[in-house]
Design goal:
By secondary structure, this protein is of the alpha/beta class. The protein contains 15 helices and 16 strands. The protein is about 35% helix and about 20% strand.
C-alpha cells in the first residue's frame, strides 16, 4: 500500500518548539509559507523548507518582512492555507498588512518567536513584550486571535489549532511564542494524519454570478472562493459593502466594522482555552502564559509548601482575553500574581477585568532570561499577606529589580 504523503512527519521526535511548529503547520494543511529569516524563529523556516515539498507545500524567502506578509495574504486569496514566521523587528514591519488582512477577512497564521527588545534588542534571548502589539499593533478596529503555547508539543498542537481558528473565523491568528519555548527541545508526538482534526476552508458553492465576497453567513463569517476561478472579486482595504465596493455611508461603515469585531467577540466562549488548577479555594491565583507558565509551576509549588492556597490560570488563548473568568475569580481571591517577561502588559488586562475586587501584582522581567521561581513564590507570599486593596497594578520588586533600586542604573560586566 502506498504511504499517505501527509504522514511524512508521523512519529515520536526529540525536537525544539520552532521545528515542531513548522511540522504542525504542514499537518494542518499549510501549503504556502512566505517569510524572511530572523532569529530566533529561523528553525521553523528550515523545518518547512526541508519537509514542505514532501506534502506539496511551497516556501518562498521574500526580500523582507513587508513582502513576506503581503505574499501570505495573496496566497490565502489564491485558495491555500498560508503562514509567515517572524520575531520582534519583523513583527513590527508586518503590522500594517496584518490590519489589511483583518479588513479583507483573510485567514492566515503568523508565528512570532518573541525575543528581548525593543529594536534589535537581544536577538538570541527570550522576551514576552510583543503581547499588546499582537492585539493592538495595527490601526483601526478589528479583532484577531492569539495563542501562547508553553512546550514543543503544544507548538505542534496549537499551530494546528491556529490554522483551524483562522479558517473557522476567517481572520489572522497569531502564535505568540518566545525564544525559550522555540528553542526548547522535548519529546513531541506527531500522530498519523487521519487522527489530526483539520478545519477545511469554507468555500462558496452557489451560482458563480451570485457570489458576494463579503456577504456573511449566519455566524457572521463569509465563505471564500479562489481568486482566478471566474468569480467577481473586488478586494480593497477601504471599508466596503458585501460586493467589496468602497462605501462612504456611515451606517454601512458601522455595520461592516462591527461585524469584524463581533464575529470574534460573540464566539469568545468557543475560542478561549484556559488551563486552570486549584482555583476553587485559592487566596491567590497566578496568571501566566508561554515560558513564564513553565517557570511559575515551581514558584507555585514552593508557595504551597509554605501553606499558601494558590491556584493557577494559564492563558493558552491570550486574545480574545478571558474577561469573564478573571472577573469571576476576582470576587473570591485576594490577589492575582502575573509573571511576565516585560514591564507590564497582560497584567494591565487582568487589572482591568478585576474591577478593583482583587489586587494585581506584576512580577516583571526585562528579558534575555526567565524569572527565578523564588521571585514568583515571594510575590505569591506577599499577595497572600496583603490585606488592603491597592488601586492599580503593583510591581513586585524581584531580586534583579532590588539590585537596580539599591545600586542605580549601572552597567556591570
Amino acid at each position: 500500500m502506498k504511504a499517505n504523503p501527509k504522514d511524512v512527519n508521523t512519529g515520536v521526535y526529540y525536537i525544539d518548539g520552532d521545528v515542531s511548529s513548522g511540522y504542525g503547520a504542514l499537518a494542518a494543511g499549510c501549503k504556502f509559507v512566505g517569510g524572511y529569516p530572523i532569529t530566533p524563529s529561523t528553525e521553523a523556516f528550515e523545518a518547512v523548507c526541508r519537509r514542505g515539498p514532501l506534502v506539496g507545500a511551497m516556501f518562498i524567502q521574500m526580500e523582507d518582512e513587508l513582502g513576506s506578509i503581503a505574499s501570505v495574504v495573496g496566497a490565502s486569496w489564491a485558495g491555500v492555507k498560508s503562514m509567515t514566521i517572524t520575531s520582534g523587528p519583523g513583527f513590527s514591519l508586518m503590522m500594517e498588512t496584518i490590519g489589511f488582512g483583518a479588513m479583507l477577512e483573510t485567514p492566515f497564521v503568523l508565528l512570532n518567536i518573541q525575543r528581548g527588545g525593543p529594536s534589535t534588542g537581544v536577538p538570541t534571548k527570550t522576551g514576552q513584550a510583543d503581547m499588546m502589539q499582537s492585539r493592538w499593533g495595527s490601526h483601526g478596529d478589528y479583532e484577531l486571535i492569539a495563542i501562547s503555547p508553553d512546550s514543543p508539543q503544544e507548538m505542534f498542537d496549537y499551530t494546528i489549532k491556529a490554522f483551524n481558528l483562522a479558517e473557522r473565523y476567517r481572520c489572522p491568528v497569531m502564535i505568540m511564542s518566545d525564544e525559550c519555548v522555540g528553542h526548547m527541545t522535548e519529546k513531541v508526538v506527531i500522530p498519523p494524519a487521519d487522527e489530526i482534526e483539520v478545519e477545511p476552508r469554507r468555500f462558496y458553492d452557489g451560482p458563480i454570478n451570485e457570489y458576494l465576497p463579503f456577504k456573511p453567513d449566519e455566524d457572521l463569517v463569509p465563505p471564500m472562493v479562489k481568486a482566478g476561478d471566474g468569480y467577481k472579486l473586488y478586494i480593497t482595504g477601504l471599508i466596503h459593502d458585501e460586493r467589496g465596493y468602497s462605501i462612504k455611508n456611515e451606517e454601512y461603515k458601522f455595520i461592516y466594522t462591527k461585524r469584524l469585531v463581533d464575529k470574534i467577540r460573540l464566539n469568545k466562549d468557543k475560542i478561549i482555552e484556559l488551563k486552570e488548577e486549584e482555583t476553587d479555594d485559592a487566596e491567590v491565583v497566578v496568571v501566566s502564559y508561554g515560558i513564564s507558565s513553565r517557570v511559575a509551576v515551581r514558584g507555585i509549588e514552593k508557595a504551597r509548601e509554605k501553606g499558601i492556597k494558590v491556584g493557577s490560570l494559564r492563558l493558552v488563548t491570550v486574545w480574545p482575553f478571558p474577561d469573564e473568568k478573571i472577573a469571576e475569580l476576582a470576587k473570591t481571591i485576594k490577589a492575582f500574581v502575573v509573571p511576565e517577561i516585560n514591564y507590564g502588559q497582560i497584567a494591565f488586562e487582568v487589572e482591568r477585568c478585576s474591577h478593583g475586587e482583587a489586587n494585581v501584582i506584576l512580577v516583571p522581567h526585562g528579558g534575555a532570561g526567565v524569572h527565578n521561581p523564588d521571585d514568583i513564590c515571594d510575590a505569591i507570599e506577599y499577595a497572600a499577606k496583603e490585606k488592603k486593596r491597592i488601586e492599580g497594578v503593583i510591581e513586585y520588586k524581584t531580586k534583579l529589580e532590588k539590585l537596580v533600586f539599591e545600586e542605580g542604573y549601572k552597567l556591570h560586566e
